Amino acid sequence: MGSTGFSWKLADHPKLPKGKLLAMIVLDGWGEASPDKFNCIHVAETPTMDSLKNGAPDKWRLVRAHGTAVGLPTEDDMGNSEVGHNALGAGRIFAQGAKLVDLALASGKIYEDEGFNYIKESFATNTLHLIGLMSDGGVHSRLDQLQLLLRGASQHGAKRIRVHVLTDGRDVLDGSSVGFAETLEAELSDLRSKGIDAQVASGGGRMYVTMDRYENDWEVVKRGWDAQVLGEAPHKFKNVVEAIKTLREAPGANDQYLPPFVIVDDSGKAVGPVVDGDAVVTFNFRADRMTMLAQALEYEKFDKFDRVRFPKIRYAGMLQYDGELKLPNHYLVSPPLIERTSGEYLVKNGVRTFACSETVKFGHVTFFWNGNRSGYFNSELEEYVEIPSDSGITFNVQPKMKALEIGEKARDAILSGKFDQVRVNIPNGDMVGHTGDVEATVVACKAADEAVKMILDAVEQVGGIYVVTADHGNAEDMVKRNKKGEPLLKDGEVQILTSHTLQPVPIAIGGPGLAAGVKFRKDVPSGGLANVAATVMNLHGFVAPDDYETTLIEVVD
Fold first, then answer.
1. Are 333 and 115 in contact (CB under 8 A)?
2. I want to staple 256 with a disulfide (CB 3.0 to 4.6 A). Which of 33, 207, 424, 495 is the partner?
3. How far apart are CA 333 and CA 115, in angstroms?
């Protein structure tokens, strides 16, 4: 205990015993949605998960796994595995996305971190390119963040800056792009008055240029690449305001679908193609519409379209857009460092912990669970096991993945008697769901269910407790839908959804070690993933720290 009165010691729970084995099972990409043929969890044979759902009504419920429940800015932000496991492990909600960028810019920390120092090495001799959505919509990016980044980069040595804008009209009013362009022009003009060579180099409407998602249409990304990197586009202008005003005059034109344009000098030459030695930052904080461009900028091996040339650049995202792919490798704002996670508390209170998954989700059940922190808290009390994932194939080829191996490792850990908590992530629903292969995803869900059964059988044998939940949705809805919820068609074919979803996820508790009278409370209707940590601490016989999100359970005499 320091002078602050902080102590790692957790108070004993007044009604729940210590010392029961607890199995913590996270099904990745396993949400709850209406049953139809695109709900692979519904279609699959999942007798174990069905029995939990249809068992005791006060031992199964849904929790929120997207938007503000996991620290993302809006309820339109789907959850992901990184923020989901952060919330599950931390027991509190931490700023992710936009809020994180705001904090890094306000404190100046962004300019001290590895990502900025990496791109900074290009400033002395080369150009800094900033690519992203020019909007104050706050969904994918914010204009004020771009303005702060422009000022900060120039103060930290950037002498030549080129901005590649994407017009919005989707999260903000159509036509607002003109005002945003004027604001940006004023900012760049101010930099020019200070001797910085700063100007807009290219542009286009977000839905037609660059910002495609889920690999729907790589042509969208190629149109952006040609303008931004190669400096080639069908429309050429002297400045961005003129460009947008002129292109908006065409019949049916709108901000979302403006064609690509480049800004040229008096001799008609593009002012800002990307060349060897340049630095590039994609300044959107939301990942889904930046990952395709990120692949094109980062990957040496790339076959989605002909890049014509692949400049040797220093590339960083505003954030890391995909924790599984580690894409991009460099980023300006790091995920929050989360202190006092449930994992650390429990280990410091003597709870012997085993964690296991296969490679693609091993980091989630360890690093992200533990607050974006590597390694053990106490190697004498913990064991983490990584099962190598299949490599060189897409996951729909082997949709069972390593589910049964994870189940076996967990079973053996439970039966060994060496651990108090056995924690796993079963990745199938998410990783196979991302391939868009509906039949394979059905196979994947069945395999995940079999792994759960293996673990629950072992819990039964040792008189333990189980908690089964998920980190976000995916496999429960594999089709894009219109506003009425009907499947969307394209050329007569349904449009497959490969992304995560906004659906809630199940949580179930049980096992022979669960004390009589334990049930889910009715007064936490909007509970989310962050409420799970306090729940698990209770089941281990402890009261959670005061600042944790409240527990989901009560003990009724």
1. yes
2. 207
3. 7
Digit-coded pLDDT (tens) for 510-537: 999 999 999 999 999 999 999 999 999 9
At 2, the pLDDT band (50, 70, 90 cuts) reads very low
Cα separation of 184 and 154, whole Å? 15
Q: Where residue 281 falls among pLDDT bands split at 50, 70, 90?
A: very high
Alpha-carbon distance of 480 to 284, in angstroms, equals 24
41: helix, strand or coil: helix
Please report, for residues 125, 429, 436, 512, the alpha-carbon distance to residue 220 in angstroms, rounded to integers and kept in the order given.
31, 28, 20, 55
Q: Which residue has the tokens 């620290």?
A: 71
CA distance 402 to 388: 8
| CA–CA distance, 262 with 51 (Å, rounded to integer) | 59
Q: Looking at the annotation, which residues are catalytic?
A: 81
Burial class (CB in 10 A: 0-12, 13-18, 19+), 282: buried
The pTM (predicted TM-score) of the whole model is: 0.84
Instruction: List own/partner pairs for 304-311 with CB under 8 A and 24 or more apart.
Output: 304/215, 304/218, 304/221, 305/218, 305/219, 305/221, 305/222, 305/225, 306/222, 307/225, 307/229, 308/226, 308/230, 309/229, 309/230, 311/229, 311/274, 311/275, 311/276, 311/278
Closest CA to 95 of 319, 278, 295: 319
Q: Which residues does 410 contact at the CB level (< 8 Å), separation at least 6?
A: 23, 25, 354, 356, 422, 424, 451, 454, 455, 458
